[in-house]
Amino acid sequence: MEREPPHPAHGTAHPALDRVRREGRWWWLQARHARRVWRWALLAAVAVFLLLVLVRRPLADWFWDDSQIEQLLAEGDRALAAGRLTAADGSGARERYQAVLALDGDRPLARQGLAQTGAAALQQARERLQVGDLDGCAQRLALARELQVPQAQTDAVAQQLLARRRAGAGVGALLAQARNAFAAGRLDEGENSALPLFQRVLALQPDNLSALEGREDALSDLLQEARVQAGQGALAAASETVQRARRFDPGHSDLPATQEALAQATEQRLRQAQRALQRQQLDAAAEGFLAVLAVTADDAAAIRGREQTLQALLLRSQRHAEDFQFQAAEHDRDLATALGASPLALQQDLQRVQRARQAEQALQLPGQGRAQRERLLRGHLARIERAERAQQWISPPGHSAYDALREAQSLAPRDPRVKAAAARLLPASQRCFDDNLRQNRVQAAGACLQAWQTLAPTASALPGARVRLAQRWLAIGSERLGRGDVQFAADAVEQVRRLQPDLPELAAFEQRLRQAGGQAD
Prior knowledge:
Helices cover 79% and strands 0% of the residues. The chain has helices spanning 15-81, 93-103, 108-130, 134-146, 151-168, 171-183, 194-204, 209-231, 235-248, 255-278, 282-295, 300-322, 326-338, 343-363, 367-389, 401-411, 416-438, 442-455, 462-482, 486-499, 506-520.
């Protein structure tokens, strides 16, 4: 069967036409494919857009929350360290930590920071209370309660705050009383005077400016009073006034100048006392040295002057007694007592006065009594000479030259023969002391020393002799204590206390004696 030839309409009759038909179909297919791709791309874009709209917040949180939280925590820590616990602009520690919890309620560091902020608020409340800032204390206490600090702790501070507020209610009245007392010149004469009242106000409100200024003015007046007292020579009163002022305010600006004025007045009074002693104005010298020692008890020059005045008074008392001026002798003995004379020296002075009284009574006897007194006196003088020849200066008791001299002095203390006998016995008593001390006969040396002191109570060598005897007592007592003789050691301590109570070695020896006594028990 034969094929029909192609129809001219189909374009197959011409190759060019056929190519055109084929290329047109390709472009149509390509355009159709492109339209399909764009439709899918558009659909994908819409889907991505919707996805971004829906998940943009979680993504933002995931990218940015952690860094913001860390920054807030760091800012909160810095604010807490600086004591900036809360602030209206949100820069306080509380606000920073609360912002963290708003972003992430499970952050333990933020909760811990709030707890620390509450504790710091309570501590600041206590500090404000201590300095009297009651309003500041109340504010910090409120913050501590808002941050849930344990109630027991906040209640304790609240009670203290309430007590301070109640006490502060009477501050105005106290200030008024203090000002009235200051105006009346009552500075520190009792609890209702100016300085104690200002001090009570400051105990309640340490930063009360009115009370601080009032105390300053009152102390200035008090220290001015001390300077006036020092200028008038009332050193003890001035020193006491300075001490009272120092108790109220040891850092007052007028204290150095007042202390300098007191020191100058003390030095001047010391020089006056020394000049008085040189002129034998013993009453003025004694008063001056005692005034200086009332202010500076360890002043070496004043102590030395007091001892010299004391010896001079005892000698003058003896002369007054020999002249039958018994009232003057008693006055000197009283003054010597005030200067710190030893009981032994005072007893010896009293014995001399008593012997002088007996002598005065003997002189007032009728003619036959005077003759009898002369016979007795000659007998005593003869006994003195016999004892001197036998070198019985101190012993035996009742028959020694010293005992005979005392009886002669009781009859006629101003008799030239009695004074001559005393002058002869003085070097003998000194030799007696030295000889017995050299042989460690401390009891006998003490008796010789007593005679020496009676014959010459103001001798310059007596203080050194007492020290030497006291040291020898301690040396022998130490040796006997080492051999177990506790009783002798105790007797040695008593002798040293009588002779030289301030001997440096005495305290250590007493300690040894106590230990030995405890072991013996």
